[in-house]
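Database export, one record per block. Field names are fixed; values are copied verbatim from the stored entry.
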Amino acid sequence: MKRIYCYLTVLALALLCGPLMRAQGIGDVSLGFGTFHDSANGLGIDNVNSVNAFGACTPGPADPYCDGDPALNGLFMGIQGDGMLFHHIGIGGEWTFQPSKPGYGPLQYRESFYDFNGVYEPISNKHYIVQLQGGIGGAKTGFSFNDTSCVGVAVCTTEEESVGSESHFQQHLGAGVEIFLTQHIFVRPEFDYHHVDGFSAQFGRDSVLGGMVWIGYNFGSK
C-alpha cells in the first residue's frame, strides 16, 4: 500500500509540473545500476535449529545457532526522472532497490530507497550537465523466509513467506555529471548519501554511502 501511495505521488507531481517542464523544454528519465554500503550492526538472529528460533542473539561461540546480521552491499537498480522548472532549478524523484534478496541471518531481505528531490544544475551545456540533488523520502527493508516442506522423499516444495518490513524516514544528497553521448542520450555517474533515521536497527549506521550510473534520455534541445 505504501508503494502505491509513492507511485500516486510521483504521478501527481508529473501532472502538476508537466506543463512547466514542457515550457522549459528540459526533462529526463533514466535507468540506473550501482551499489550502496553500510556496515553490519554486530547482532544476529537464531536459525531454525535453535530453541530461540528467529530470536535476537549475539554471534559467538556461546550460541552456535546465531547467524550474524549482514552488511548492506551488492547490486542496486533504479528508475529516476526530473524536470527543470526554471533555468537551473527543478524537481525530481528516484527509486532504487535490490533486484535480488541477500541473506539476513536465517532470513532474506530486500532494501529499497525512494526520495523526492530539489535539483540544481549550476553548469549546463550541450556536452555535459553538473547536477546536485537534495531531498527527503523513505527507506524500506522487507524480510522473508523460505519454508521447505516435503512429502516423503519424492516431492519437496519451497515457499517464500513474508515476515514483515521496517520503514524509515530518510534524507538524500546526490551529485553527478550528466555526459551526453548523443543529443539526447546521456550517462550520469552519481555519488549518493542517505541519512536513514533509525537504520542502525537493521545495519551498523544511519549513514549510507553509494553511487549509481544512470543511463537516460533528455527531452531538451541542446
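Remark 1: The chain has a mean pLDDT of 87.
Remark 2: The domain at 2-42+72-218 is CATH 2.40.160.20 (Porin).
End of record.
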